[in-house]
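User: Show me sequence and structure for the first protein, then do the same for the second.

Assistant: Starting with the first protein.
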Amino acid sequence: MSTRIGIVGSGIVGQTLANGFIKHGYDVTIGTNTASKREELSAKTNGKAKVGSFEDAAKFGEIVVVATKGTAAEAAVRAAGIANLSGKTVIDTTNPIADVAPVNGVLQYFTSQNESLMERLQALAAEAHFVKAFSCIGNAFMVNPDFNGVKPTMFICGNHDRAKMDVKAILDQFGFDVADMGSVEGARAIEPLCILWCIPGFLSNSW
């Protein structure tokens, strides 16, 4: 099992997953495109993660995680370096949330129903092995969540079987059953699950 994880993105999802990987014994480099955040990020991981640029994280990781806002994901992949992702398992946590307000609690997406953000990322970095994961659950529940003894299901998809096996092994450590929704097009169904679980959050603060 690959033990070096590079995380492209330094928001709450990137920080949560970085600490989750550290908890499970992985070596982690977290990348930020904001140099002033580096010291803060080191503190957020108790100094246990290396901190660098998106490119540093992508080069370091045997497995790479894209954990940016959806609107920034394509630019982040370019900044990480397409060549640095070639042949690697890349976990795509992103959702194509538009920079506009929800409508009656319903998020707006910048993709259509017949396209996913993951398909765009896979087309952009064609030699990388993208696997969708962690996009259908809030950051508070991403690492060994406790649902009163019930193991939650994580939906994944991707074109590369070995990459999906890599991700299944991680998800098992992180406390999830895995439901494989097939190839990259499965992200068209997985990404909108974020809209669904956010509705009670926006309407009644039930996250």
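Switching to the second protein now.
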Amino acid sequence: MKYELHSHTTETSQCAQITAKELVEKYKELGYSGIVITNHYSDFTFSLKEMFNKKLRSEHYLKGYREAKKYETEDFSVLLGVELRFFLNGNDYLIYGVTEELVEKSPFLLPMYLRKTARFFKNNGCIMIQAHPYRPYIYRANPKYLDGVETVNGKSTKEENEKALKWAERKNLKIKTAGSDCHRITGAGLSGIITTEPIKTNNDLLRILKNGEFEIIEKDYEK
């Protein structure tokens, strides 16, 4: 079974060019068994009014996921994730194990910093992965606050992904994930993971990632 771990929808992420419905339909067509919606949580995501109103902020953030969830079936699961970027810099962090309730109760994350945020998500049963750590203008975060690294990103170059893998191994970061970083139809299905058991819930996803019970779908760099 194939699963996408890094995707975006127009309903929440301004840079996305694919609706939640189109996204799910495309991944079903590609033979995937599920997808994690990891819309951006950044200063480009929210209006000023939404930034400082918890209810409006969470409603906007969850809009893309909730729309995608409508198209979930017995054979195709839709889970919620987060791609977080602080005000401080251009680093991106993928959060897995997220629930709607956690988004609704969470503090405003953008002014926070990695150590405090990592503690918040860990205390709520989530894992934090640094996304595409070798893109320009990104620096490698302190590994003591990370659970793992995205070592194959569909929008990154072969060299960037190879460097990410070497860094993860050098820092002994055991969870190595992969995702297409899909923002549009043409970016769908570039990567992801393969499992021998279905991922239906956050608990399934977290257990499989922590135990390494998956294979990475390597990106075809010639496409």
